[in-house]
Amino acid sequence: MEGIVEMDEPSGVGGWVFAAENELAELVDEVRGYRNSLGSRGMSTLEFLEQFSYLLFMKLAAEDRDAGLSGQPHHAARLWDTLRGRRGDDLERQYRHVLGELAKSSGTSGAVYARAQNRIGDPALLERLIVDLVGGHDWYPKGTRILGGLFEDFLQKSVGENLEAGNFLTPRPLIQAIVDVMQPRSDDVIVDPACGSAGFLIAAHQYIARRLAMISKDELERLSAGTIRGMEIKDRRACLAVMNMLLHGIGRVNGDALVTVEDVLEDKPSAYASLVLLDPPFGRRSRDPGNDGADELEGKAYQRDDFVTTTKSTHLNLVQHAMTLLDRGGRAAVIVPDNLLYQTGAGEKIRRRLLQNFDVHTLLRLPAGIFYKQGVKANVLFFDKKSPHADGSPVTTEIWVYDFRTGQHFTGRNKPLQRSDLDDFVMQFKPGVDRSERKKSSRFRPISHKELVARHKVNFDIAWPIDDYDDADVRLAPGVVAREIADELLAAHDEFMAIADALEIVE
User: Fold this and answer.
1) Half-sphere exposure of residue 427, counting CA atoms within 13 Å on the CB side?
2) What tens digit of pLDDT does each residue of 44-73 get?
3) What is the pTM for the complete model shown?
4) Using CB atoms within 10 A of its CB, is residue 328 exposed (0-12), middle (13-18) or buried (19+)?
């Protein structure tokens, strides 16, 4: 099976883009109508996306079969046929049976249907979804621009109504900027060990595809056969990630799962990556695979001999996992909360290991207000895995710090982050150019290893006065000021909980 691809652009490219945008807008409006009908019955956007994914996967399998795109049709195609023509309670029973059958499958479908349940209580509405919405369209010809855009639109809309969504949806403009400076290649093995909705993996795939004048079938096969892969501990997140990738042209209905449901912190990596892209969930959240909520506190400290320290902090453990996941010569971009930069105990041990064994070359300080989850103050840490020095000297010689925090104010609704806001960072990063060519500026400056280790507890929390910006703090709306104060308090709460974790382990 060739997978979903973007349709060829005709000679009038501008008109084609306009037509695609119109078709996407119309499709979004149509799907939103069904989502609103279910929303009035108490179904969240994430739950709707889950049910929509179940039905759409079967329809794609049927289209794949009918077009003869694969030698052996996926059994989801046959199961789709069994839903059509049924009504009422008979349809609901058959839908539950179909979900149970597909939950037993492996590969891509196994990731989509793990623990699948019917959440559509109204058989008449289920029939409309099957016959009019999913069954009423030919989906493959729409291409990745429309299908991927549709799925992303509903993922974005899920954020405002569900705490869970804020934990696994990284702001897309930030992802795009990170991928632009990391410059993924078609020969990379790209891994996100906490992939959420697969934003990093999709952006990496799109970056590679855009920069290849003509991607060969062999290269396309590599990208859809496991050189780009993710892991998730939550079944629902894995389902949404796999469908998001599939609708962006990554993976196969009949293929291996490119996102696996597993707790990556349990064991050492079984394979290494040349590029790790990671946004760990912040805070102390449940790592119970059966719990899709965001309220239960975690209480597990992972004992691994390849970790430098033992901690209950999920994000600190995932940073350690990323360090062990990198192959020699590999590179990583990891979003980290502020407390990793200055936390004593586990945080300090991780910082020292990073400086000694990795080339930690860039730190991007992010402003508050850009993440969907409130109270997040974060940074992006960029590091490469190099061969250890024979004389035992540290691999890191200096870290370039870019201050994107001072004087920057964003809010999710009124002033969301745009990719253009990060243009200056990307330009000064100088991707693909030797770092000796970097130039110091008011927002970008190097800190030597000697200066870092001289700081108390090897503190990475680095800032300096910036003179060339207009400080608009005094003109901020009261609501923005209140939100920033609330974010500070939420961040302080997480920091105190991290201290409590460390004290519990010491005891």
Assistant:
1) 9
2) 999 999 999 999 999 999 999 998 877 788
3) 0.88
4) exposed
